[in-house]
Write a structure and sequence with these properties.
By secondary structure, this protein is an alpha/beta fold. It has two domains: 253 residues, 3-Layer(aba) Sandwich (Aldehyde Dehydrogenase, Chain A, domain 1); 173 residues, Aldehyde Dehydrogenase, Chain A, domain 2, CATH 3.40.309.10. The chain is 40% helix and 23% strand. The strands form six sheets. A seven-stranded mixed β-sheet has the order 12-15-16-11-10-17-18, with helices on both faces. Strands 7-6-5-8-9-20 form a six-stranded mixed β-sheet, sandwiched between helices. The termini are far apart. The relative contact order is 0.14. The structure holds nicotinamide-adenine-dinucleotide (NAD). Nicotinamide-adenine-dinucleotide binds next to α9 and α10. The site of nicotinamide-adenine-dinucleotide (NAD) has 33 residues, from α9 and α10.
């Protein structure tokens, strides 16, 4: 049997291995999930949610072990791994929200009385990335199941053990074949997309998202795509520069920059640029780096391929005239030193292609209009951030940004209950929120005369 080995990016050691699912087996796997779906639906929304609620206690008990596994498999600092693992236990609010959102609604006019139902779609294929190897599955698998679908889930080939550990917890409470894990890489992902599943819920890169959209057109499968970004940050003249620089350092270098809403492009007004660049370079230089198990600020890149992609972008930018204010292409194994580049111009690859590494790129601008224009000059549109003291001015800048989620003196992600949403080529559809929950359902309207 072919196996998939998982390597620790900090040490090169094998963390474990899983059996690869032959791509040719996937139609049969989907058929099993299809056969299990009617009984799962029959349990009713409340019945399903009651079962899923039981996982909270198991996730809480295993948070330390799951956190450690994440650190070993993909490198993030242990405290962040444990934080992500703990978040899996806080599902009550989401499950309550799902129950409230998916209730039938009655709508009447003078003549007609309609009931709007939110029925399951059938079988959902969930395909996930490695950067948040347990919360990304949770964001898609949990609402898909609660809505009454069965799920065929493929975790990233970089983090199969985390994906398996996530599914193992759910499978302690779920009936057989309601959630089935398949392991593998592109071939298995493609086979799920080509299979008879009713929906693909995908979180990953823009390139793979485009492929999935093309491939799904044959059967007009429902597709939700949560893709990459090239998030901008605007630093206005009246910003608290120390705070802005600290935020930029955290948001550019956290998880070694391997975050979809990482700050990759910073546009700073000329008059405060010297102070901002110096502060950001200082924060970058002070960051500790090492094996995630020792809880540094920054761990390794997930693998050599991702490392080389980042280093190539930095090299090319420097060759084209960018200035290194901190870090640079010096590295050891998979560790890239947090890097600040200034003097970024539009023609550089690093100005437009997702970096997904610990690199912050600063561009000076002469006006707020120029900052907004440059921030919006991207095919992506996931998150964006604005820093400034004047509330009205800062909010007005935020409203002119074309991203899906905009943070004002704060990260891009919104309050609990709001959607995680990308604009433009950062995908379409939602993670979480009532908008997100409804994606996993087929709306049906039954009408009688009033
Ligand atoms: P990726 O697109 O390379 O892989 C994601 C998943 O798709 C993996 O499971 C992979 O095996 C599978 N896959 C690969 N080729 C496939 C194909 N042709 N058909 C079907 N499945 C296929 O992405 P990655 O490197 O794992 O993750 C990083 C990317 O994810 C970044 O672009 C990041 O911005 C994005 N991301 C987005 C969000 C969001 O919420 N928008 C969240 C996390 C990560």
């Amino acid at each position: 049997m072919e196996t998939l080995k998982s390597y620790n990016p900090a040490t090169g050691e094998v963390v474990g291995e899983v059996p690869v699912t032959p791509a040719s087996d996937i139609p049969a796997v989907v058929a099993r999930a299809r056969a299990a779906q009617p009984a799962w639906e029959e349990l009713g929304l409340e019945g399903r949610v009651d079962l899923l609620r039981k996982t909270a206690e198991i996730f809480a008990e295993r948070a330390e072990a799951h956190g450690e596994l994440m650190t070993k498999e993909m490198g993030k600092p242990l405290k962040e791994g444990i934080g992500e693992a703990k978040s899996l236990a806080y599902i009550d609010h989401e499950l309550d929200e799902i129950v409230a959102t998916l209730q039938p609604e009655v709508v009447e006019d003078k003549r007609l009385r309609s009931t709007v139902y939110h029925d399951p779609l059938g079988v959902v294929g969930a395909i996930t990335p490695w950067n948040f190897p347990m919360s990304m599955p949770a964001w898609m698998v949990l609402p898909a199941l609660a809505a009454g679908n069965t799920v065929v889930f493929k975790p990233s080939e970089e983090t199969p053990l985390c994906g398996q550990a996530y599914a193992d917890v759910l499978n302690e409470v779920l009936p057989e074949d309601v959630l089935i894990v398949v392991h593998g890489a592109d071939d298995q992902g493609k086979a799920i997309v080509q299979s008879e599943v009713d929906m693909i819920a995908f979180t990953g890169s823009r390139e793979v998202g485009k492929h999935i959209l093309r491939e799904s057109s044959g059967t007009l499968k429902r597709v939700v795509l949560e893709l990459g970004g090239k998030d901008p940050m605007i630093v206005l003249e009246d910003a608290d520069i120390g705070r802005a620089a600290k935020f930029a350092a955290r948001n550019s270098f956290g998880n070694a920059g391997q975050v979809c809403v990482s700050t990759e492009r910073i546009f700073v007004l000329d008059s405060v640029a010297d102070e901002f660049e110096a502060a950001l370079a200082e924060f970058a230089a002070a960051m500790t780096q090492g094996n995630g198990m020792e809880n540094p600020d920054v761990g390794p890149m997930v693998n050599a391929g991702q490392r080389d992609h980042v280093l190539a972008q930095v090299d090319a930018a420097v060759e084209a005239g960018a200035t290194v204010l901190a870090g640079g292409t010096g590295h050891s194994d998979n560790f890239i030193v947090p890097t600040v580049l200034a003097g970024i111009t539009e023609d550089m690859d690093i100005a437009s292609v997702e970096t997904f590494g610990p690199v912050a790129c600063v561009t000076r601008v002469a006006s707020v209009d120029e900052a907004i224009e440059k921030a919006n000059d991207t095919h992506f549109g996931l998150g964006a951030v604005v820093f400034g003291q004047d509330q009205a001015d800062t909010a007005a800048v935020a409203r002119r940004l074309t991203a899906g989620m905009i943070g004002v003196n704060s990260a891009a992600g919104g309050a609990v209950g709001t959607p995680w949403v990308g604009a433009r080529q950062s995908g379409f559809g939602f993670h979480k929120s009532p908008d997100g929950h409804k994606q996993f359902t087929q709306t049906r309207v039954v009408t009688t005369r009033a």
